[in-house]
TrEMBL record:
Residue ranges annotated for the Myb-like domain, each copy included: 27-79, 80-130
GO annotations of cellular component type: nucleus
Chain segments carrying region Disordered: 140-185
The HTH myb-type domain, residue ranges: 27-79, 80-134
Entry keyword Hydrolase: no
Keywords of this entry: DNA-binding, Nucleus, Repeat, Transcription, Transcription regulation
Main subcellular location: nucleus
Domain of life (superkingdom): Eukaryota
GO molecular function: DNA binding
Protein name: Transcription repressor MYB5
Localization: Nucleus
DNA sequence: AAATGCGTCAACCGCCGGAGT
DNA sequence: GACTCCGGCGGTTGACGCATT
């Protein structure tokens, strides 16, 4: 059931109408819009004291008029001490490009490999900078191939340079090419991994593979995943949260 | 100086999968 | 197995600031 409500942003007078469906956002009295310094301080001090997690009950416990999702997002994307502020460095940009070419719009996976960067930040940077940059260079941002040739290869087909293409819309939760996030299972179809269904996932080889991408050698022959399709049991796919920054190679 | 256009990015939405019951 | 709760993800929106007219 959808219902539309009128809401006024806390930061302006312009009212907006949105379709509200999620329970946490239908609660009356919940504040929306940009966070104030005071709210930030409350959230930070509460998490320092109580730790992360139990997001849905956190606002009530902390005395915030925000939904749990909003608190989590604010913490993850802005308030966490490990979040790096400032512009994306050229080496970070290069890494984003290479990882995106490999795994598509898996922002959390990409973020998990770039210290201090959040999935939201990388997604924004991609949409506002890199996408346009590639387009201006005549490169399809989705396939990373020349635009005029982008229709000549089917998704999953090997392309010059040893790269493989993910299926279109690989970002969808429901398609067959999802690279699983979190501790969920997923499938990378016709990619470098072969047409494998990753119903069970283990970390080491995929992690090594991403590390090799980070280290500019995605097709290192020492990495078995690249010389032969991996078996389902060979993978686990981490996320920005499950792949902590302490797991990122120091030599990045 | 005012109006308009455009780019950026914080925040929100809808959905999904896992865990617990 | 069905259901609910929760955390997390990717896509999208819109407020805001800057540039241009």
């Amino acid at each position: 059931m959808l219902k539309t409500v009128d809401m006024t942003s806390s930061s302006g007078n312009r009212s907006v109408a949105r379709k509200i469906t999620t329970p946490c956002c239908t609660k009356m009295g919940m504040k929306r819009g940009p966070w104030t310094l005071e709210e930030d301080e409350i959230l930070v001090s509460f998490i320092k004291k109580e730790g992360e997690g139990r997001w849905r009950s956190l606002p009530k416990r902390a005395g915030l008029l925000r939904c749990g999702k909003s608190c989590r997002l604010r913490w993850m994307n802005y308030l966490r001490p490990s979040v790096k502020r400032g512009g994306i460095a050229p080496d970070e940009e290069d890494l984003i490009l290479r990882l995106h070419r490999l795994i598509g719009n898996k922002w959390s996976l990409i973020a998990g490999r770039i210290p201090g960067r959040t999935d939201n930040e990388i997604k924004n940077y991609w949409n506002t900078h890199l996408r346009k940059k590639l387009l201006s260079q005549g490169i399809d941002p989705q396939t990373h191939k020349p635009l005029d040739a982008s229709n000549t290869h089917k998704p999953g087909e090997e392309v010059p340079g040893g790269q493989y293409l993910l299926e279109p819309n690989s970002s969808s939760h429901t398609d067959d090419t999802t690279v699983s996030s979190g501790n969920g299972a997923g499938k990378i179809s016709n990619s470098v991994f072969g047409d494998e269904d990753f119903g069970f996932c283990y970390d080491d080889k995929f992690s090594s593979f991403l590390n090799s991408v980070i280290n500019d050698d995605p097709f290192d022959s020492n990495i078995p995943v690249l010389s032969q399709p991996l078996q389902t049991r060979d993978f686990i796919v981490g996320t920005s949260s499950s792949l902590g920054h302490d797991q990122i190679p120091k030599d990045m």
